[in-house]
Write a structure and sequence with these properties.
Strand order of the largest sheet: 1-24-23-22
Order of helices and strands: HHEEEEEEEEEEEEEEEEEEEEEEEE
Distance between the termini: 18 Å
Number of helices: 2
Structural class: mainly beta
Oligomer: single chain
Length: about 350
């Protein structure tokens, strides 16, 4: 294992080294025990992406494999409860905001339901908007109202934007002033949606190898994770000519998430990827990318853990870093590297 910021977590280095030498890493992961300073929230299915509810008391986790669901995680006690779908659903279609949406998600979807990428936009009065990349009876961005005024946040479905053929979504962001942007690995580009125009390809996005996505606070810049090419592209939006800058990484970036102060983006993804893939040989990685200079700072690298094959997203909550994974049943968290 390589842990970068060793001065912050020396106990993790020692614990991992001892665990690996004794052959205990797999046993610890299976029983949901901590591995050094890395701890886990278990009994989830493919928590590929994470979104922090304003106030940092709750995290929403996606579920991107069979049986996956949207879960609500208590930040303080590290417990997870089912949020969607549930036998009773709250639905209030916003036909003005989503005029082309054919209606709520099919309640008969069952295990075909997949929640992939997430994006949460803070609202007023503790009522927010959650955007979910949905695979199942339709390929779509599903939109929910998150009501955090009560002791436990609740979801109300309000609308959707269905993908055009042959687009297949991965990540989504909401734009300031309205609209959505989503990546489509299926077609190798990025798409933008507005209620009055529908979906349109983002100019200059066809060579970004798109996977994860972030957007600047003013909506002028998109940051696109190029998983297959180990890169992140900063792409202008609404500017002519299109402006583009690319930075390479030492791993394959999956999701991108803004830091608390908005100065850097956290990129997470697997390293040491082989063909054919052997996830037991892959590492979990996190790096920060400066929004202005695109300077990359490696933060974290960790070998395979049974139950947590490789990181797909990294978010900061206070003094903790939380990691999601596609190939696993747990969320990892540990002290934020210095």
């Amino acid at each position: 294992m390589k842990l970068l910021s060793v001065s912050v977590m020396p106990s993790l280095v020692l614990a991992i080294a001892v665990s690996m030498s004794l052959g205990l890493v797999q046993r610890s992961a299976v029983t949901c025990d901590a591995v050094g300073d890395v701890r886990f929230i278990c009994d989830l299915i493919s928590p590929e992406d994470l979104a922090v509810v304003p106030g940092a008391e709750w995290v929403i986790a996606s579920g991107d494999q069979e049986g996956g669901r949207i879960h609500l995680v208590n930040v303080r006690d590290k417990t997870a409860t089912l949020l969607f779908p549930t036998p009773t659903r709250n639905e209030r279609p916003d036909t003005a905001a989503y005029p082309t949406c054919p209606g709520p998600i099919d309640p008969q979807e069952g295990d075909d339901f997949r929640a992939h990428g997430l994006y949460l936009t803070p609202g007023s009065g503790s009522v927010h908007r959650l955007y979910v990349v949905h695979h199942g009876s339709r390929e779509s961005i599903e939109v929910f109202e998150v009501d955090a005024r009560a002791s436990r946040p609740t979801l109300t479905w309000v609308g959707c934007a269905v993908a055009p053929e042959p687009v297949g979504f991965n990540s989504v962001v909401a734009l300031p002033g309205g609209g959505l942007v989503a990546t489509s690995p299926a077609t190798g580009d990025v798409w933008e949606w507005h209620a009055d125009t529908g979906w349109r390809q983002v100019p200059g996005s066809d060579d970004t190898a798109p996977n994860g996505l972030e957007v600047s606070s003013d909506g002028r810049w998109l940051y696109v994770a190029g998983f297959a090419e180990s890169k992140v592209t900063r792409l202008s939006r609404g500017q002519t000519p299109v402006q583009k800058s690319v930075v390479g990484l030492e791993f394959r970036p999956d999701n991108l998430r803004m830091s608390l102060d908005g100065s850097v983006i956290f990129a997470a993804g697997p390293g040491h990827v082989q063909t054919p893939r052997d996830v037991s040989q892959e590492t979990s990685n996190v790096a920060s990318i400066d929004l202005d200079t695109l300077a990359v700072q490696p933060l974290f690298e960790h070998p395979f853990i049974d139950g947590f094959a490789a990181s797909t997203t990294a978010i900061q909550i206070g003094n903790e870093m939380w990691l999601g994974t596609y190939r696993g049943e747990r969320i990892a968290y540990f002290p934020v590297p210095d």
